[in-house]
Amino acid sequence: MGDSLITIVAIVLAAILMFVFPLMSMSDRTDDISQLTVKTATTEFVDNVRTTGRLSLADYSAFEQEIHATGNSYDIEMEVKVLDENPGKKTTQASSTKIGENVYYSMYTSQILETLNQGNAVLALKEGDMFSTSVRNTNTTLSQQLKNFFYTVAGNDTYTIAAEHGGYVTANGSGGN
Amino acid sequence: MMKYQYLAVVFVIIMLPISLVFSAYIGTQLDTLDLQISYDTKLDNATYDAIKAFQLNTVNSTTSDIVNSKIRDIEAAANSFFTSIATNFNMAGYNSDILQQYVPALVFTLYDGFYIYSPFENTLDEETRQQLQNNTSATYVGGERVTGLKPYIYYSCRYVQGTTDVVITYSLDNYVTIQGQANGKKINDAGYLLSNLTYNASSGTVTYRGVEISEEPALKEYIGNDSNGGQYTYIKINGVKYYRENDGTWFTITTSGTKQPQSESFNAYYNDFNDMGYRYYKEAYDFQNRIVNEYGLGSLTSANAVDQNGNPLTNIQDDEGNIIYNFMGANDRIFNFSDDIEEPDSDFNNHRIAVIRYVVENNLAVALANYNRVGTVTYEFAMPKLAEEDWDKILNNVCLISFLQGLSIGGKIYNGYSVINNNKNEEVVTENSIYIVQNRNNINSEYHRVTHTGLFDSVDNNSLGVFNVDFERKTFGSAQRETTFYYYPHYYLGCYTCYVAQTNTATGYSNIYDYLDSGSNKTLAKIYYTALGRERYSMYKVFRNPDDHIAQFRT
After folding, report:
1. Phi and psi torsions of A57, nearest 5°
2. Substitution target from A5, A47, A89 for chain B, most B beta carbons within 10 A
């Protein structure tokens, strides 16, 4: 009686140790690799937009494809802060010892994608604008599933793969051609 | 009975270390990559700071085109690069002096050539060395390692064809300088290359792409905190703006932002008119005639290009070894005026870009290789392969290329570069640097990109083409330099749909020339071409004799 109980416990323990442990370890590494890919891709994408002043549909699709190749689904959030120098000019006119204050207004992912998909295919930015992108995974990766199963530390909506990058646009881009 | 447990334990004993090592390895790789990305970004930011410093200095200085003041601006930009990179790297424990050893070169590509800022061994000649031997307070000592600008390198190329042996110096636009001997005749000439020009000698009218280019009303600008509060008429000659005072005298603005009266005045014609645009096209027409008829250079092709030893140039390859440009095989006729020479895909432009790339690539590789001799860091510095999109930036704009190599980032040694271009400076007037002001007489009028949808029909004779630098904020000091004032030369406002955000611009054309050709109403084309010509003609040119040039406007 006691023996068969121990046998069952032993089999369960052995199964966990021999299958689940390596599986968890491997899936953790997979996530690490995905993280590596996503981080590199995001930085490259943002820096390319920043230094050319152009965000094209082709670049965006290539970026999307690259991160999705890791086998996860991602939520990509982009933001362009458009520099409006016009209010600054008015301030300076009033008092020339003051540096005019610049105003930024934001365009978010849906607006950016709408512009890109409107046949324009290029969103041209100018020097002084800001561009940032943040990416996080939306599916539950294998490693998350296993962790949730065993020690339920992570809630369901948390993400393990995330990257963000942003900065000043350094050149005037031109749209159209 | 217990063998399952034993098996499992043995398995864990084998797997656990493997897993741990693997995890640590991946962790290190991640850290290395993190560091590399953060270094890339820091390098980008420092490079941007440097080019921004250059931009601000040139915009606020009327003498920025002249060589010694350009050197001053570039050295200031290099300083801001090191200050910025030291600030960025401070957290990692690097200061400016240490970092300087890891920067083999900063390359400033300018209008018709480039500067390399890098360390070199200051070799003094024997005579100077002896003179300085007993002088302990001398600034320079022989054999010392000095960081500074190396001599300016022009984008030039030598061509040999029969009895013709000339050197052509290219620039970021269609301006070329030709020096040497062509068909037995000595040449030293420079000018802009343009196709589609006609000139009527009897009426003196110049037509460019079907648009007659004529004089335009005199240009006006606001200056500083002047109590007049009004605009001043100005003309820009050889890169310097001369403003007309109400009493008829002329003055310039000094680098510190104060007025500098001029002893001589200009022809009364310039009180009301400006013919710089007309002169640009007329001189381009004359230059074309000289090249084709007088010098007989019309048949020069890319295959005639040779290096200093007379050997043909090697092909240009990308980082994967694909041939980008084949000098022998491309068969581009350089002065092919029937080929829309000013358009980006002309024979001339393909060849020009290849020459610029050839010159930059070769000189840079030498500079980086030489760094190993003077460098104090034990790392074999090598030229990284620049990506094609980076070459695109370098070949079309003023640019700063910075290199940072040899820093340890965990698993490997960092070897990075950054290319930041700038298209808002006094160095070059590109096709995209001209904006169109709807109504020049209305201070609240908007300015637009040329490609603003619907602009063809909304411009009229009151519209004006303005160089983008003239919209930049400038500084203006009081005589005692107590306060710095800020002002805009133009208070026109940027259009919200084509300048602030470019959501309403035309698409589907290959370049601005084609776009302007497509409109039936030629007013926009006339305003744009006049402004482009005016701004290019007003730029400082090394080739010109400044006194002779300005004298033309005095009589």
Report:
1. -60, -40
2. A89
